[in-house]
What we know:
Blueprint: E1 2-8, E2 11-19, E3 24-28, E4 34-43, E5 46-51, E6 56-64, E7 67-72, E8 75-82, E9 97-100, E10 105-110, E11 117-118, E12 123-129, E13 132-137, E14 142-147, E15 154-155, E16 160-166, H1 169-174
Antiparallel strand pairs: 1-2, 1-8, 2-3, 3-4, 4-5, 5-6, 6-7, 7-8, 9-16, 10-12, 10-15, 11-14, 12-13, 14-16
Amino acid sequence: MSRVRLELGDGDVAFEVERGAGDTLVVRGPDGVERELELADLGGGRAMVAIDGGARSAVWFARDDDVLFVHAFGRALRFEIAQRGDARRKRKRGGGGDLRTPMPGLVTRVLVAVGDVVEANAPLYGLEAMKMESLIKAPARVRVIEVLAEAGQQVDGGVDVVRVEPLPAEEAEEA
């Protein structure tokens, strides 16, 4: 059984996930209700998903260490996967590094420049996929050290668009 946390706007939702028969996962939500997800990997970060034997829907996904980005059912979702025993992996949320595209798409706008100090949850760039724009946001208060894509550029899922570094504590307070 794995624990997964889904970020939804103002709050997070915790799920338990375990392998079912064949290509299925059994997902138990916070309300205790179980759902069966049947998955068919199509390759290239794409899959078909059916929930409780219902109609199949296409989803796009990219994984970055303990974070899974999924574009499904008209929404961009971020899942954080915990290790057994609910221990966090060494890469904590809120650090610096690359902010990769969660799915293939078109960079619609880049809202930051090199050297900008950005607050947590501030939008960094827009990505359009399936005629829907998602804003990719800063994981914490950071400084932009590199912008690797520009508006109008088509990108694959899991590629770097903006590189950031966390601000040292004293600099975060002064900036």
